[in-house]
Design goal:
mainly alpha, 20 helices, 2 strands
Length: about 375
């Protein structure tokens, strides 16, 4: 980060930190708390069709695709990181790589297998996105300066985040029936009777879901009052931003809100990894990892990884549709868009798997560089 930009955003030197915040108040608000607003508002204003906000659509999907690849250099370009979990970093990725290589055959002869893998990846992704927001709340709790016994317990953060789901399902599902059917055509056969049932029983399901949500918010505020008397702005803003994002599903096109969720998640992760690696590699380790040497030029490194992966995804996936003209790109006898789709399925599961144990806030080595 340039010195001028660092001063504007209040970013301290790599060997210092701002109490209670991760990077700085400005960066945290822009990248963690309200990151979804920067794309949701324009998409809502531009129009109802994807063509109306096509560039936002492409950039969001490109950034969401590319952020998952930031984990790979950290694992495979620093042997000390790889040595912590060599089997985990070898076996599961190897299986996913083999499944990816078999995708053309499986798509032709057993398409249901690939669609099943996509469903698993999609479900895992929802859990992963919510748990990342939980992790940021726990990070703020760890940096709050409050002794562990007095901190808001983790279950109240989980309840606040997941407490929205019942209302989004029982009211949002039937309310946005047309949008759900339009954007999830392959699931219509299953979703239609489910949405019919939810709509039929909304009279008692909606009050129950509202009760769960009210209880979740009340319990979170009670725990936060006990911990800080509601004087921890980082946690309050993160909770408020996440609540606002979830509430958006009730009022706006759920497809646009899902895109905003994806962008928020990708930006959170990118900034978190950047901030962690900025501190972790501020001095070249004795074993001189390749990643540490690359990070001596952070702008070049992050633009190459994020921008390169995003551009590759957009071109291969959407050439001839939203970008460019002429026939769709093919790799061998298979459309490039399918190759990218298959890669996204299996590489995303590697990303989710790695993140499940790499970024645990309770680990001293991780907390040291927060």
């Amino acid at each position: 980060m340039s010195a001028v930009l660092a001063r504007v955003l209040g970013v301290p030197p790599a060997d210092a930190s701002v109490p209670r915040w991760h990077v700085s108040p400005a960066v945290d608000v822009l990248a963690y708390h309200l990151s979804w607003l920067w794309v949701l508002v324009p998409m809502v204003l531009l129009g109802p069709r994807v063509e109306d906000y096509a560039w936002f659509f492409l950039i969001i999907l490109g950034v969401n695709f590319s952020h998952r690849h930031l984990t790979l250099p950290y694992v495979y370009l620093d042997r000390e990181v790889f040595k912590r979990f060599p089997w985990r970093f070898t076996v599961f990725p190897g299986v996913m790589l083999a499944l990816f290589a078999l995708s053309p055959w499986a798509w032709k002869h057993h398409r249901g297998w690939v669609e099943g893998a996509a469903t698993i990846a999609g479900t895992w992704n929802v859990w992963h996105v919510y748990m990342q927001k939980y992790g940021i709340l726990r990070m703020y709790a760890a940096k709050s300066g409050v002794e562990p016994a007095r901190r808001a317990p983790g279950w109240t953060d989980r309840l606040l985040i997941f407490g929205w789901l019942p209302l989004l399902v029982v009211w949002g599902g039937p309310h946005h029936r047309d949008a759900v059917a339009r954007n999830y055509r392959s699931g219509r056969r299953v979703l239609t009777p489910l949405l019919d049932w939810l709509e039929l029983h909304q009279a008692w399901l909606v009050p129950l879901a509202i009760g769960v949500l009210v209880a979740a918010v009340a319990l979170w505020l009670r725990a936060e009052w006990r911990a800080s008397r509601l004087r921890n702005p980082a946690r309050l803003l993160m909770a408020g931003g996440t609540t606002g994002l979830s509430a958006s599903f009730l009022f706006f096109d759920p497809f646009k809100v899902a895109l905003a969720f994806a962008f928020s998640h990708a930006l959170e992760y990118t900034v978190f990894v950047w901030a962690f690696q900025r501190r972790h590699y501020r001095e070249q380790p004795a074993h001189r990892p390749l990643l540490g040497r690359l990070l001596r030029f952070p702008w070049t490194y992050y633009v190459a990884v994020i921008g390169g992966c995003a551009a590759l995804y957009i071109v291969l996936r959407y050439w001839g549709r939203y970008v460019g003209s002429g026939p769709r790109i093919r790799i061998g006898d298979v459309p490039a868009s399918l190759w990218v789709f298959w890669w996204a399925i299996y590489q995303s599961m590697v990303h989710f798997y790695f993140d499940g144990f790499l970024w645990k806030m309770r680990k001293p080595a991780l907390r040291r560089d927060l």
